[in-house]
Amino acid sequence: MRHNRVRKPIRRLAPPRKSVPMARLKTLLLALLGLGLLALGAAAGFWFAFVPRSYGPAEIAARGQPDVKNGAYVFAMAGCASCHAAKDAKQGERLKLGGGQELATPFGTFRVPNISPDFDTGIGRWQIADIVNAVTRGTAPDGSPFYPAFPYVSYSRLKLADAVDLAAYLKTLPAVSNRVGAHALAFPFNLRLGLFGWKLLYFNHFSAPPQIAALPVAATDAIARGRYIVEGPGHCGECHTPRWPLGGPNLARWLAGAPALEGKGRVPDITPHARALGPWSADDIAYYLDSGLTPDGDSVGGAMGEVVANLSQLTKDDRQAIGAYLKAIPAIPPPPKPADPPAPGGS
Ligand code: HEC
Ligand code: HEC
Fold it and tell me: What is the rounded CA–CA span in Å between residue 100 and residue 132?
């Protein structure tokens, strides 16, 4: 029902009258949408006070010794290094999570924070529970909400054990001293308060996250495992699923392709539609996620290169599970091409 509510703003994006410059109209619309969010945020203020959203330190400690080795595996599945390590970092450098990458979006530029265990510029002072709440609840230790540029909507599907192991693993990584500046976002998106409203719309605190795609076939163990990786830690939908104007995922077009967040090119449809992954077998998909090579012999480019760098560290079984799941989801045709857009990613 939450998703129905977001359809309305879309209809309001009617084609502009000729006399109004497009850029100004766009800015105005964005500002209006943002102000709406702010109002929602204010309404949500009281709600924030009693939401059962966070894990307490005692609750986490009661689980016993975390499995750091599993944490390293979850780290690879979840691709934390893609954003939190230096841009284009390779191998060992991918474990230095000093942040500083800039993510350009229609709302402005995000500066990815330092999540290395450095005490002064990183998150060395955070407890395991603080990290778990950030990753799976989108909530900072002081209770403020995170921007969804940090893909916690997907990570909220992590099993608690995996999230705790991941947090314990982060604490074993090298401390990097690097002070990262503030985000450079346009008004009103620079006001964190608005995120209370955003989370009210798109983030379900109260119960298990909603089911995404009903599978047309009976789920085998492999498909179920693939579903966990793709919908949760792998956060594939964050790039491959289109968004509503306020940034929430359009689940009716789950994994059916989307404009690239950076604004140039498209992220491909990876459903089993004939014009998407239809011609690929589950093994082809697994092979691509390991080698970066498509069945036609093309090699992976753009943001997906980082994803392959992470997924090639998984077990073969897990990559095959991803392939099995992607072959099992509903086939959705890619949107018609506008003109002949440049290949997504590029370099
Ligand atoms: C797509 C890029 C991206 C990925 C992938 C990503 N993050 Fe982040 N992360 C961000 C951004 C952007 C922020 C800042 C959010 C904000 O300011 O509200 C952030 C914030 C954080 C914070 C809060 C840090 C602070 O000082 O407030 C933690 C902790 C964190 N991320 C951990 C992780 C972990 C663990 C993973 C992997 C499971 C991960 N992130 C994956 C982009 C990313
Ligand atoms: C950071 C954004 C991002 C994330 C996250 C992401 N992808 Fe991709 N993906 C892309 C882009 C961009 C391409 C196009 C790559 C190219 O042009 O070479 C792509 C291509 C692909 C392809 C090849 C499709 C084709 O027709 O060539 C597959 C398969 C794929 N992704 C699967 C996945 C899976 C599975 C996940 C999650 C584990 C995932 N992707 C997560 C951005 C992403």
Answer: 22
Looking at the predicted structure, is the pLDDT value of residue 5 above 60? no
Confirm if 265 and 250 have CB atoms less than 8 A apart.
no
Q: Cβ distance 102 to 182 under 8 Å?
A: no
Instruction: Give the separation between CA 81 and CA 176, rounded to whole angstroms.
Output: 14
Contact criterion met (CB below 8 Å) for 246 and 307: no
Ligand 1: which atom is nearest the Cα of residue 155?
38
Own/partner long-range contacts of 334-337 (Cβ < 8 Å, ≥24 apart): 334/256, 334/257, 334/268, 334/269, 334/273, 334/275, 334/276, 335/242, 335/256, 335/257
Is the link from the previous residue into 188 a cis peptide, with omega within 30 of 0?
A: yes
Q: Ligand 1 mean position to 256 CA, how many Å?
A: 25
**Ligand 2 closest atom vs CA 302:** 12
- Chain position carrying tokens 């995120």: 195
* 208-265 tens-digit pLDDT: 777 888 888 888 999 999 999 999 999 999 999 999 988 889 999 999 999 987 777 8
- CB-CB contact of 194 with 34 (8 Å): yes
Element spanning 34, H or E: helix 22-50
Instruction: Report pLDDT digits (tens) over 156-204.
Output: 999 999 999 999 999 999 999 999 999 999 999 999 988 988 888 888 6
